[in-house]
Amino acid sequence: MDFKSKDFGSDKRKKNFKKKEVPQKITKLTVKEDCDLLDFLMREFPDRSRNKVKSWIKNKNIEINRKIETVGTRKLVAGDKVDIYWGRIFEGRELKGISIVWEDQHLIVIYKPTGLLSVATDKVGVTAYSILSEHIKAQNRANRIFIVHRLDRETSGLMMFARSEEVQRILQDNWKEMVFERKYIAVTSGMITRKDGTYTSYLVENKALKVYSTQEPGAGQIAITHFKTLKRKKPYSLMEIVLETGRKNQIRVHMSDMGQPIIGDKKYGSSDNPFKRIGLHAWILGFTHPVTGERMRFESDVPPEFLRLFEEKKTPGVKKQDKE
User: Fold this and answer.
1) What pLDDT score was predicted for residue 319?
2) Are 247 and 295 part of one and the same domain?
3) What DSSP assignment string belongs to 142-160?
4) Both 153 and 241 in a single domain?
5) Same-domain check for residues 37 and 137
6) pLDDT in tens, 72-109
7) How many Å apart are CA 163 and CA 144, to the nearest integer?
8) Cα(270)–Cα(236) distance, rounded to whole angstroms?
9) Whole-prediction pTM value?
10) What distance in Å separates the CA atoms of residue 226 and residue 243, rounded to the nearest whole number?
């Protein structure tokens, strides 16, 4: 498919995501006597805590007569139909620092902004993991999330978490088979002679925690990166990156190896930083749902600052006039 700037969506900082939904389990109930919604649900589910039931209402799992209801004091009358959507998909919910793109009872897909760590280090406690964990524990203190994969701190874009150890294990043990599409957008310094191709090397991490590349088989983990140049405007290139393997800092190292480091990536050889961040974005994530078997694909907007580097500048001049 030919790439055009319009494929990226608008230049505004809103996040649009395309998704394929999984089937939802629904419990259908009929109200027998007048009461409040919260009281009705507590009677129907006496084994659930009051806070848990409130979370169903708050998170838009409840419909009354086919309309979503988020107020627990809503008055019900005999004959009202109450539907409970277990694991309903929530779209674009904003938390402090991240956005929930999609979730069900097994997985959560989020949008992570640049500058936020995926998981904690000794020096930094606030991460995508901690923000999301706090959010789901507010619904039920027993809720947990589990790391499936990571994004570098300065890389923005899509990533997912498992909601159980079993789902985490299934995904990690079958990652190559289950993740059918994982694309990044990168802005690099330099204009590679090959428009597209594949770069392969073995990656090794040294004692300083910097990853380096070697062509010596067996010296490290094999890393395979496919690349395609989408736009060029000296001295920059806008590139689509597809990972065949998912090694630490793989894209950053391979782009540097090819003499085309990602802008803003001082660690791997870039001296150019036009928009004060690393020019790497996790654009598309497609995977087979580990429980339902559904193929799911999510696509996020490319950061507008990436696109602005490749806009054509209009030069002032005399307007052309038609001949008489």
Assistant:
1) 55
2) yes
3) T---EE-----TT-EEEEE
4) no
5) no
6) 899 999 999 999 987 654 444 567 778 888 888 899 99
7) 6
8) 12
9) 0.69
10) 6
